[in-house]
Design brief:
It holds the Pfam family DUF3306. By secondary structure, the chain is mainly α. Helix content is about 35%, strand content about 0%.
Length: about 150
């Protein structure tokens, strides 16, 4: 196929045609380059997994990576991380400490706040450009007056 036919056909139509054709589509064969000889990484000596005795010897300057590796007992991991985060360097509040409150418990609105919100429907109607004829009068507003001509 020429490039003009492919460009006119479009991607989706070409994909649908190729998908529905029973003939196998010729695919480009990648020429394999010779693979340079790669030496396997040196095998590390298998260190024994840390225990609770190792946790007792930890200091804030210790390397904690062995305690979070695969295969370490969960109790040992928890104790090591508990010891790590007991360090006062990790107890510093950051700039996001305003978000630590529980916002699931809403504070009740006071009467003063509710009184301040009574004007909101009228302001919103004016801002949104809604006609007052579309809404029934609110309490205390009285019936709309009709002009006579």
């Amino acid at each position: 196929m020429s490039a003009d036919v492919i460009a006119e056909e479009g991607f989706l139509r070409r994909w649908a045609r190729m998908k529905s054709s029973p003939e196998p589509v010729e695919q480009a064969v990648a020429v394999e380059a010779p693979v340079p000889a790669v030496q396997p990484p040196p095998v590390e000596e298998a260190r024994p997994l840390p225990t609770l005795d190792d946790v007792a010897r930890l200091t804030p300057e210790s390397d904690y990576s062995a305690f979070v590796a695969k295969g370490v007992d969960k109790a040992v991991q928890r104790m090591a991380l508990k010891k790590l985060f007991a360090d006062p360097n990790f107890a510093v509040m950051d700039g996001l400490d305003i978000y630590i409150s529980d916002y699931n418990k809403a504070a009740p609105l006071t009467d003063a706040m509710l009184a301040a919100l009574k004007h909101a429907p009228g302001v919103l109607d004016r801002l949104l450009g809604e006609d007052e004829d579309d809404h029934p009068p609110a309490e205390g507003e009285g019936a709309p007056t009709q002009e006579t001509t």
